[in-house]
């Protein structure tokens, strides 16, 4: 079942119709022409297909959020009437499967009225149903609580939902109350409806243990929630709350007043229920202390320095007031920022440190502040003080309200006074600009004379030239580009190549960069790979720049590089395949890469747990043309499912539910019985069963697919098991009619269906077992003829 989405999409019938049509015999050709152009007929047929998809575990919906389904159906009037008609006209097991899946939709959509209607239909048992979210199985009441849906939770509790039942193995995630508390954002104001939800869950018997209390009280830190949980915990707790560690939870989690009340309540419960026995033991003795601390600073000196009151500063010193170094340091900094040279000199003569000696939360060092004020005498006085050393005073965080990190040397260079620069260099001969940071847009970075001056005095690290090159490229300053490259800038830097690519009107700059990349006997791995991917992502408008990159013999067109915001890596070919549908229909960028030498059999996308070759990535796009292009360029149609490739191309196509790609691969000699991966794999027929696409199953059987071929030894599923596990109702009926699976298969399938809450499938399988109907074996079927599995 598709998981919950943060931003639900709207169902677009025209976009999904062809996907749905491939599920039903004869539908695709029927709908390809006139039907799609007729809105009324489109809606009628789409609803029919949508209902079919819902009954079959949302087969064909892909990534469409299931919450969109009810919104779409409500466009056509009263959903109760529609559901009543559909449920009443369906066989019992189909009606039950349809009701189960509609129920899950209603839970996700927070539609309490629909949930109640379906429960009242008597097709469902509320405690048999299984929801799924964030990769976990949940009971219906757990999911409703997790969604913080009071109305639906109440409907479920009124229908006797079991608040003790859970599929979670982790106790901290077990039960509706845990599911609710775990979703509350720390520090968030808890609205009344959430508190009401907590109350009804507690009233229904939801348990509270100390672990839940620690999270509910300590993590969320809401006095209202804390009081509620603590009260119920004390009322329901059979052992002594003090000895079980209740008091530390209270002390750490609550503010003074709330903590005092909660402690009093806890001790009172101990006295009432356990006659003070716990308080007599060493472990149970209670110590409650409020620790207060105050830091007394010398605000007078700082204030006088800030406003420039020299007379008052002198008075403080005259009275021999004992001033700690920290206070002197703060006052010195404030005098610099205020431009009060007389106070600055007084403080410096009095021994104020110009280098911070302890942790002080200030925005600048004195040296940085003086440079920022462009005060040469103060800068020289600080340098002459002999109290400043590198590198601690070279950084200033968030100086003067800015969020950037700035370096003293950056500031002095920005100032542009070469005599000050030389004085700084004499004081700190090892000082260099090692990174431009956020100063890359400053004027001096494009001043060739000043840059040459800094280079002559060995004040610029070679890495800075590469950063400066970025600015020169942005400014299209060709002369500076040549100068920086000659000075040691790296023309192959990915960020610099990206900036050049983004300006297609100056392709000559990209050529300059590429021409200055040293040629080696072998290409440097990953060199330029990211830049090629960036050019691909810019699309057809950047085709000229892509051609220039591909023509360079220095760049690596094969390597996989990191994908931003993802744990995966992609090669340029992988990026082009993923974006192929956004480009022209002839896949021009993929063609360019293949012509440049990209290997169609290479891994083009690497995830943490599996890899995709070019043809596997193309199969995921469901584009026959793209798959054909790769096969034409030498992609292996029967590449085995080994070494982190968990699918053959045909298996991947069957899993995606794309009939056209399946047929194309079969027509091009794909092995219909290709071996599955050892872990989590499957045959093409097994994946067709899991996807719920009966047309694909029929096509595979026509091409001699073996329905009794064993699945993966680890996490594998026989076709019947896969269909039952994913509620593919019609696929289940189709496979049972083949009459090739014995009762052991059927029982395992029923067990998987039950574990996932598909009780309609369970009923159907059990009915099949009990009837023991004599069905013709597989070899009795003429699969070359049309087989009407809907009957």
Overview of this structure, please?
A hairpin with a 4-residue loop joins strand 7 and strand 8. The chain is flat and about 105 Å long. It is mainly alpha-helical and 791 residues long. Helices cover 52% and strands 3% of the residues. It has a 4-stranded antiparallel sheet. The protein has a two-stranded antiparallel ribbon with strand order 1-2. A two-stranded antiparallel ribbon has the order 3-4. It has 42 helices and 8 strands. Helix 8 runs antiparallel to helix 9, helix 20 runs parallel beside helix 22 and helix 41 packs antiparallel against helix 42. Among the domains are: 237 residues, Serine Threonine Protein Phosphatase 5, Tetratricopeptide repeat, CATH 1.25.40; 154 residues, Alpha Horseshoe (Serine Threonine Protein Phosphatase 5, Tetratricopeptide repeat). The two termini are 26 Å apart. The N terminus and C terminus are likely disordered.
SSE map:
Elements: H1 13-21, H2 27-31, H3 39-55, H4 67-73, H5 79-89, H6 92-108, H7 112-120, E1 131-133, E2 136-138, H8 140-146, H9 150-158, H10 176-182, H11 192-203, H12 210-219, H13 223-236, H14 246-253, H15 256-274, H16 299-307, H17 310-318, H18 325-338, H19 341-349, H20 366-372, H21 376-384, E3 395-397, E4 405-407, H22 408-415, H23 418-427, H24 448-456, H25 462-474, H26 478-487, H27 494-501, H28 507-515, H29 529-537, H30 543-551, E5 561-562, E6 569-570, H31 572-578, H32 588-595, E7 603-606, E8 611-613, H33 614-620, H34 624-632, H35 649-656, H36 659-667, H37 684-691, H38 694-702, H39 719-725, H40 729-738, H41 743-755, H42 759-771
Antiparallel strand pairs: 1-2, 3-4, 5-6, 6-7, 7-8
Pfam families: Ank_2
ANK repeats: 610-642, 645-677
Keywords: ANK repeat, Repeat
């Amino acid at each position: 079942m598709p998981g919950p989405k943060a931003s639900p999409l709207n169902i677009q019938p025209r976009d999904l119709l062809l996907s749905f049509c491939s599920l039903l015999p004869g539908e695709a050709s029927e709908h390809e022409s006139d039907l799609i152009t007729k809105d009324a007929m489109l809606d009628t047929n789409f609803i029919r297909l949508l209902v079919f998809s819902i009954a079959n575990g949302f087969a064909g919906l892909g990534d469409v959020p299931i919450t969109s389904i009810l919104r779409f159906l409500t466009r056509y009037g009263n959903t109760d009437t529609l559901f009543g008609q559909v449920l009443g006209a369906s066989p019992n097991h189909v009606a039950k499967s349809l009701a189960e899946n509609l129920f899950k939709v209603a839970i996700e959509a927070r539609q309490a009225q629909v949930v109640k209607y379906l429960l009242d239909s008597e097709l469902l048992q509320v405690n048999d149903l299984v929801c799924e979210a964030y990769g976990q199985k949940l009971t219906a009441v757990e999911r409703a609580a997790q969604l913080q849906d009071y109305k639906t939770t109440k409907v479920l509790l009124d229908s006797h939902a079991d608040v003790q039942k859970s599929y979670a193995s982790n106790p901290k995630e077990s039960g509706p109350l845990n599911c609710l508390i775990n979703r509350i954002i720390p520090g968030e104001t808890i609205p009344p409806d959430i508190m009401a939800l907590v109350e009804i869950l507690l009233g229904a018997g939801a348990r509270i243990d100390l672990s839940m209390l620690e999270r509910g009280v300590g993590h969320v830190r809401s006095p209202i929630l804390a009081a509620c949980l603590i009260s119920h915990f004390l009322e329901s707790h059979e052992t002594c709350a003090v000895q079980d560690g209740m008091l530390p939870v209270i002390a750490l989690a609550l503010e003074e007043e709330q903590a005092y009340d909660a402690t009093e309540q806890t001790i009172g419960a101990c006295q009432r229920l356990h006659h003070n026995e716990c308080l007599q033991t060493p472990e149970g003795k209670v110590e409650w202390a409020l620790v207060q601390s105050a830091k007394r600073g010398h605000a007078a000196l700082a204030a006088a320095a800030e406003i420039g009151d020299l007379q008052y500063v002198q008075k403080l010193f005259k009275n021999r007031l004992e001033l700690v170094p920290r206070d002197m340091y703060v006052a010195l900094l404030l005098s610099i920022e205020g431009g009060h040279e007389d106070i600055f000199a007084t403080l410096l003569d009095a021994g104020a440190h110009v280098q911070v000696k302890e942790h002080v939360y200030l925005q600048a060092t004195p040296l940085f502040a003086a440079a920022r004020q462009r005060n040469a005498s103060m800068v020289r006085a600080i340098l002459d003080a002999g109290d400043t050393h590198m590198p601690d005073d070279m950084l200033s965080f968030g100086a003067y309200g800015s969020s950037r990190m700035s370096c003293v040397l950056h500031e002095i260079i920005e100032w542009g006074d070469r005599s000050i620069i030389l004085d700084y260099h004499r004081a700190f001969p090892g000082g260099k600009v090692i990174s431009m940071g956020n100063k890359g847009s400053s004027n001096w970075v494009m001043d060739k004379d000043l840059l040459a001056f800094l280079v002559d005095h060995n004040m610029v690290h070679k890495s800075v030239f590469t950063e400066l090159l970025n600015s020169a490229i942005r400014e299209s300053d060709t002369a500076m580009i040549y100068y920086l490259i000659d000075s040691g800038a790296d023309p192959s830097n990915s960020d610099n190549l990206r900036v050049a690519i983004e300006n297609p009107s100056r392709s000559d700059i990209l050529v300059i960069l590429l021409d200055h990349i040293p040629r080696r006997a072998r290409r440097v791995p990953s060199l330029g790979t990211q830049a090629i991917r960036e050019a691909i992502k810019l699309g057809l408008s950047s085709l000229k720049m892509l051609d220039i990159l591909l023509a360079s013999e220095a760049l690596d067109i094969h390597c996989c590089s990191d994908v931003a915001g993802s744990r995966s890596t992609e090669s340029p070919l992988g990026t082009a395949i993923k974006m192929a549908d956004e480009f022209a229909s002839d896949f021009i960028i993929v063609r360019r890469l293949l012509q440049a030498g990209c290997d169609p059999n290479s891994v083009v996308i690497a995830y943490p747990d599996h890899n995709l070759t070019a043809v596997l990535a193309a199969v995921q796009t469901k584009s026959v043309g793209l798959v054909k292009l790769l096969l034409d360029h030498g992609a292996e149609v029967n590449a085995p499912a080994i070494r982190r490739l968990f699918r053959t191309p045909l298996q991947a196509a069957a899993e995606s539910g794309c009939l056209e790609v399946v047929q194309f691969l079969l027509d091009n000699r794909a092995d219909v019985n290709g071996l599955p991966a050892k872990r989590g794999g499957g045959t093409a027929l097994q994946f067709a069963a899991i996807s719920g696409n009966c047309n694909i199953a029929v096509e595979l059987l026509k091409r001699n697919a073996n329905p009794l071929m064993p699945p993966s030894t680890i996490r594998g599923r026989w076709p019947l098991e896969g269909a039952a596990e994913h509620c593919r109702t019609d696929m289940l009926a189709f496979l049972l009619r083949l009459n090739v699976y014995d009762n052991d298969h059927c029982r395992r399938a029923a067990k998987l269906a039950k574990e996932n809450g598909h009780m309609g499938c369970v009923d159907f399988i059990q009915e099949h077992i009990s009837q023991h109907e004599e069905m013709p074996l597989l070899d009795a079927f003429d699969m070359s003829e049309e087989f009407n599995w809907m009957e």
